[in-house]
Here is the input.
Amino acid sequence: MSNILFVDDDCDFLEINARFFTKEGYTVKISSNPNDAFYLVKSFHPDCIILDVMMPGLNGFELCKKIRSFCTAPIIFLSGRTGESDKIRGLALGGDDYLVKPYSFRELSARIKAQLRRYTAQSNFNLIHYPPLTLDLKQHKAFCCKEDLLLSNREYDLLLLLATNPNQIVTFEAISNHIWGVYSENDQKTIMVIASRLRKKMASYSELENMIETVWSKGYMFHTKQEYIK
Here is the structure.
């Protein structure tokens, strides 16, 4: 079963979640100290990280940024803050999902399973080619002529979804379900921010500039004349 790491300064919260998800069959580690959690990620190799935002000293956003320097495991933020700007900031820093407290165990469990399914499915292939664009599914990276596009996890996930559905409209609902495992109309603005950043990075390369089209009020389309998967 998968390894899960919970990081939160509330020890009671950690113990309650550890008991529940251990019963669910996961191997669970907990940490109430963000600095200790950073080193625990390196030794425990979690398949999913559940990370509180508001912690003293090193907050969840800062810890996420440090973790992303070496780890691609999905990160789900937990926070009592409901502002859209916090959610967008978390996703932009490399988070994979954002869940507002209080939440149900069933919802968190469903979101964890959605993230694990997505990353497992990606590992079944090696490379997707749309020359000069290449997506490396093991490294979770995209390249143009072997140059790393330096995409965030969310930007990469969006590009991967579009690239595996070429020349088709991929709706906001489909994108939300792919990235977070659930759909909410409120996710549309977040998706638009992610797409804007992705298109800006791709526009740095003339060959990739017009590969992604915005389909007004519906979603996005990935344009290509050739495809092969290895």
The longest helix spans residues 105-122. The mean pLDDT is 87. The chain has eight helices and 13 strands.
